[in-house]
Amino acid sequence: MEEEREKICFNCNQFFPAMMGETTEFGVCLNDEALDPFIDELLEDRKSASCQKLVDSIKFSGERKACNEFEEVEEVEIDDNSPMGLALSRYSETGELDLESLEVDILEEQLRNIDLKSMPVDEYAAALRSSNPEERDSGITTLTGLISFGNKEAFNELFGFFKELPPPTTLAEVHFKLKLLEYLKRSEARILLIPELIDELYHTVSNNTTRQWISEIFRFLELCPYEEIYEPLERMLSDKRFSYRLKAKMKRILDL
């Protein structure tokens, strides 16, 4: 049976060391409102944080009895052969510790223990709707990476964003949708794209600008399970809105 940790600040997940690179019992609470403007700075690069004077003025001993917001630090098992395990082994043998290398080792250890399949994606989903193209593209890139690791929520968010986009009318819009489709195809849930892409064929005006987009949709459908595409394509064959050339593509896919 796991022993319950003593409820002191040092054992709380919100306790943050007051000094970087020094052994100290003192720290600050990340829930302290005074630190709100500096949280990102502290977590990203604590050595150069501009709030060190503030930290010095509000620091306290980690031995202090914890408040009712106590959040017990989770124990992480460290593989002896991992970068972090090897670094600690070197320290136990030599007594010397390279702080910069240790920071890298700690980051690698944290990444190893992240379950990317269930990692929350709210932050990256919000970036999709940013008016800043760089933030939007950053959100797309991160969600795409998580999709590759089987994160279903990442797929749902990127797919939802894709569905909100109107049919393309410019070459830039065509290229953007092509890029998104390429990312979404990496998911095991790609079969969910079929109804949306069928709808795209109904609402995208066929011309020289959109030809590449329409061709890519047909290439995707051609690789889909026959039973999933047979009925919608068969209905499209009797629709006068589609040209002879597009119907020829449908017939080829249906092997008619």
Give an overview of the whole structure.
This protein has 256 residues and is mainly α. The protein has three domains: 9-61, no CATH class; 83-112, no CATH class; 122-254. It has twelve helices and three strands; from the N terminus they run ββααβαααααααααα. Strands 1-2-3 form a three-stranded antiparallel sheet, with no helix packed on it. Strand 1 and strand 2 form a beta hairpin. Helix 11 (226-237) packs antiparallel against helix 12. 18% of the residues are buried.
Short recap of the structure:
The chain has three domains: 9-61, no CATH class; 83-112, no CATH class; 122-254. Helix content is 53%, strand content 4%.
Q: Gyration radius, to the nearest Å?
A: 27 Å
Shape annotation: elongated
Q: Could you say which structural class the secondary elements and strand pairing correspond to?
A: mainly alpha
Order of helices and strands: EEHHEHHHHHHHHHH
Biggest sheet architecture: 3 strands, antiparallel
Q: What is the subunit organization of this protein?
A: single chain
Distance linking N and C termini: 67 Å
Q: Are there runs of 5+ residues with pLDDT below 50, and where?
A: none
User: Beta-strand level of the residues, as a percent range?
Assistant: under 5%
Helical content band: 40-55%
Number of helices: 12
As for the number of domains, it is 3
Identify the strand order in the major beta sheet. Answer: 1-2-3
| Average residue pLDDT | 79
Number of distinct beta strands:
3
